[in-house]
Amino acid sequence: MATAAKTPTKAKAAAKAAPSKPSKAKKPETGTRTIQVDELSRVEGEGALFVRVKDGVIKDCKFKIVEPPRFFEAFLKGRSYLEVPDITARICGICPMAYLMGAQQAMEDALGITITQPIRDLRRIMYCGEWIESHVLHAAMLHAPDFLGLDDALQLAATNKAVVEKALRLKKLGNDLLEVVGGGRAIHPINTRVGGFYKVPTKKALRGMMDELKWGIEASIDLAKLFGTFTFPDFEYDYHCVALHHPDEYAIVEGDVISNRGIHIPVREFHEVFQESHVAHSTALRGSSRGDNEPYLAGPNARYNLNYKQLSKLAKQTAKEIGLGEIVNNPFKSILVRMVETVYACEEALRLIKAYEEPDVAYVEGRPRASEGFGMTEAPRGVCYHSYKLDSEGRVLKAVISSPTAQNQPQIERDLHGVVERSLDLDDEALKQRCELTIRNYDPCISCSAHFLTLTMVRE
Amino acid sequence: MTILFLGVGNLHRADDSVGPALAEKLAADKTFMQKGVEVQPHSGEGVSLMHVWAGAERVVIVDAMKSGATVGSIHRFDAINEPLHHDVFRYSSHLFGLAEATEMARALGSLPKAMIIYGIEGYEFTFGEAMSPTVAKALKKVEKAVRKEFDDL
Fold this sequence. Notes:
The structure holds two protein chains of two kinds.
Chain A: E1 32-37, E2 47-54, E3 57-65, H1 72-75, H2 84-88, H3 96-111, H4 117-147, H5 153-159, H6 161-182, E4 192-193, E5 196-197, H7 203-207, H8 210-227, E6 242-245, E7 256-259, E8 264-265, H9 270-273, E9 274-277, E10 286-289, H10 300-307, H11 313-321, H12 334-355, E11 371-379, E12 382-390, E13 396-402, H13 404-422, H14 428-440, H15 446-449, E14 455-459
Parallel strand pairs in A: 2-14
Antiparallel strand pairs in A: 1-2, 1-14, 2-3, 4-5, 6-7, 7-8, 9-10, 11-12, 12-13
Helix pairs in contact in A: 3-4, 4-6, 4-12, 5-6, 6-8, 8-12, 11-12, 13-14
Chain B: E1 3-8, H1 18-27, H2 30-33, E2 38-42, H3 46-53, E3 58-65, E4 74-78, H4 98-108, E5 114-121, H5 133-149
């Protein structure tokens, strides 16, 4: 047994596949049809789905987050600014960087700390590690089986050993990057702090990662090409894409918030333009844009659509070879975008490591003051926002953390609605599988968002 | 070739601490450590487990179980010769723990030459270091059995 906060059993709910050629298609009937998934498989955390269709028209479509609330924002109150990043990192075992670095950034903003370029580069290397391990785990082990008509990664290992071996080695590469910079362990690194690191890694230790990163570039291109041969359900959506943007690089660890509908704001104004609200069927808050109260999209496709031009030449070439244009509006193709971003992350980490020189200063100190600070990074699943109010001694008065999955929850429901509408000719089992695949497009991290899938479909 | 003992679990989660608690005890036993067994506590994260036991000659693992059996009951699995059911050794919602890692390694042909897993049925998996008395008693029996596994060294 292990460290997770819960021990769900979801095997029975495991989706078989979202068959690209459903064999048991049926014409939509009159009367009520209900699709219900009580425990979503291959996602992080506890979620459920309920769909009710009456006479071929969707009457209800709810993506439910049923994970118990975790109260992080409440128990951070009174804690020192120095403790916060190590506590928030525990929000997630898959993408702790998003919670660790977002909090660090916000504290640095509050205390007026400007970190040095080498510290910034080391953080970007760590975040590349997180993108690699998280993207590969999701794309190859959790999402790819859907497209291959397999139950899970175990079946994938039995039928396509080389893919799983490659994916596991890539995941290890991501973890190793985190360990080398983060201090001995990949999941919740112990060597990072507000202002930088307790101890910077040696040039030798980082350079030791170079050969594996070179292999990683080739391996992720191979996986991208394989996934590019999958058949994708025919569904597109005119997304309001929201992501970080940095003038000089494909944004990962910092930037302004931009959207394809003209928004360009500093992180501190995020909640002036976007809001979170609560609904009865979910323990997660739900993101929407304040202007129109409409959902928006965060995550790989949003980043790709907004910042495509800043990808490396090789990443762009890979995207082209697997059939992606400069804009991807088919959510099922997020598996491809994840692999393009993995190619980029391997290249970027390699580039930064080649240029790395051990700095004299491991961290920049700041003086506590009554202040407010804001932070945002690109978690593998999308933008992750932090804001903290501190008292004069640097203790937390108020904490606000918006996870990517909470922000994406309304858009996931919107996607489900669209996908179900176009798939009513599928029988219930095939439709259920298609719905689960739609949710897995997001690699939702339900635990992180709870503040999440069981599918119920009613056809009336 | 490595001979490995892995104590899987979380020291701060009541009965889930059986694995790491035994790892701590064995690591502190100089006589036992002279046998050359590599003793490690482990969180139970599957991918990492596969990397830890890759290439090992022999592995003995202790982990807590939640199978619905009587609390404190002990199960010995010869992982090379019998598949592990995924519901027995739960890890996290991403569902890749000891059982999945074992079956994945079997599919990939990367299991150690020998792998014995002791499971102790737990009762309490909430926060805290104290084991249930029945589970603590069972751990003493498992300790004897584990030591016996390494008698030839």
